[in-house]
Amino acid sequence: MRIPTSWALALTGIMLAGVTVDAVRAAPRATLTAALQPYIETPSVARKIQSAVLLQATDCTGNLRMLHLLHRSAVRGQLTLAVVWYVGTASDSSSIRYLLPKWTRSIPLHQVPASVLSELKRLGHLETPTLLVLDQQSRIRFVSQSPRSSREFAGLQRIIEGLTWIEEL
């Protein structure tokens, strides 16, 4: 029995589509650390721990209190805020910049890459603001939502200060 040419072509197309889907699934996922790499400081200060914050224009200034933790004297010498990512339209950037503390004016502000959003969602972080902290080897060390109470704020302060206790190698 001979298979009609149109069927053979259709079968070949279906097999190629299956191979393409498998290839996409097997491709390495864009990581949070890879998305943060363009913002990481030069190697001369690579000993600092790098961080990023994800927020949106609708976040109130009370939710942005965690940024003040990154600027405390016990932390800022060891931890660098590399980038502020935001969810929203390009026009949101000016209102977001206005919400941010003055010390963040020199920090790059960019729309969040889709790969970062999907990776954070995969980790269970569905709300903003979100804090991302890498270790000295650029591995994800800590990810947290903004604290909801003064007790959580104090706990986050302890965690951030603890992350900056760099062991000398």
How is this structure best summarized?
The chain has helices at 5-26, 32-36, 66-70, 73-76, 92-99, 114-122, 150-163; strands spanning 49-56, 79-87, 109-111, 130-134, 140-145. It has 169 residues and is α/β, with parallel strands linked by helices. The chain has one domain: Glutaredoxin, CATH 3.40.30.
Plain-language structure description:
The protein has 169 residues and is of the alpha/beta class. It has a single domain (32-163), classed as Glutaredoxin. It is built from seven helices and five strands. It has a five-stranded mixed sheet. Strand 4 (130-134) and strand 5 (140-145) form a beta hairpin. It is elongated. The N and C termini lie far apart (72 Å).
Major beta sheet, specifics?
5 strands, mixed
What order do the SSEs take from the amino end to the carboxyl end, as H and E?
HHEHHEHEHEEH
Tally the helices: 7
Shape: elongated
Number of strands: 5
CATH class: Alpha Beta
> Which whole number gives the mean pLDDT?
78
Helix content: 25-40%
Features:
169 residues; alpha/beta; Glutaredoxin; five-stranded mixed beta sheet; 7 helices; 5 strands; 18% strand
